[in-house]
Design brief:
It is built from 14 helices and two strands. With 262 residues, it is mostly helical. The chain crosses the membrane at residues 59-79, 100-116, 136-159.
Length: 262
């Protein structure tokens, strides 16, 4: 039992790292663009046009750096999700396979956020500068971001957050209950095989709905949109199962407690 109990701190450390990274990701994708965390040298008038930008090293170099960071994250996230790598990790790390995957994903995302290079002099696809748009567009974006993040957190609860983070696998292993996926229904396993990213639409809203879509934000939104689209393969059967599970969770949450019923 002692060696098994040593797995718990490792799984908890992975969970804490992932949770902290998630909070930082909210700041990176929502708070910074909505609240204006990056000063612009020279202001909007100093920005270059699209044709001039492709010849300006001060724009191309940070964009190439940002692209490299994104490819690092996408490569890690995709490679470690392949069956070959998962089998190798399960052979050497056992029940910690999912926790290790989550920790590596969090570390890759931390690299993206910490070393991301803004391009304040680059061209913008759109920008709300004139009134009343300069007031109302950021407010509308803020509301949509709040709604999207609430939906994301709700969907993660539906998809068994503890299992996604690798905690449930370790918990079941310590208690001798086996692999949690072995207890899933065939419909659930089918859904998981088709949907690696259950919050696709909400993340796309966060990525694209911003008051100012600059060059580096456009790169971030385009690449992650492409990645999310390629990883999204739901059909009508999956959607019916997902709708039924959501209704069941909502029914359980809305049931009165025994003390209240008395």
């Amino acid at each position: 039992m002692a060696p098994a109990l040593l797995l718990i701190p490792a799984a908890l450390a992975s969970f804490i790292l992932a949770f902290g990274t998630g909070v930082e990701f909210v700041r990176f994708t929502s708070l910074r663009p909505l609240l204006g965390g990056i000063p612009e040298p020279g202001g909007p008038d100093a920005r270059q046009g699209w044709l001039a930008a492709v010849r300006d090293r001060s724009i191309l170099v940070p964009l190439a750096w940002d692209l490299g960071l994104l490819l690092l994250f996408v490569g890690q996230h995709s490679l470690m999700a392949t069956e070959t790598v998962k089998a190798w990790m399960s052979r050497y790390f056992g029940v910690l396979q999912r926790s290790l995957y989550v920790a590596c994903t969090a570390l890759a995302l931390q690299l993206v956020m910490r070393y991301w290079e803004p391009v304040p002099r680059g061209p913008v696809l759109w920008e709300a500068r004139a009134e009343p748009w300069a007031t109302w567009v950021p407010l509308l974006c803020f509301v949509l971001h709040v709604i999207s993040w609430l939906l994301i957190f709700s969907i993660l609860l539906v998809f068994d957050y503890a299992e996604l983070m690798g905690l449930k696998q370790v918990y079941y292993h310590v208690l001798g209950l086996g692999e949690p996926l072995a207890l899933k229904s065939p419909r659930a396993l089918r859904l998981f095989s088709h949907l690696r990213h259950p919050v696709c639409v909400e993340l796309l809203t966060v990525l694209w709905v911003v008051p100012t879509l600059g060059t580096d934000r456009l790169l971030l939104a385009l690449l992650l949109t492409l990645y999310l689209g390629l990883a999204h393969g739901l059909d009508q059967q999956d959607l019916r199962y997902l709708r039924a599970q959501l209704q069941r969770k909502l029914h359980l949450l809305s049931r009165p407690q025994e003390g209240e019923a008395e």
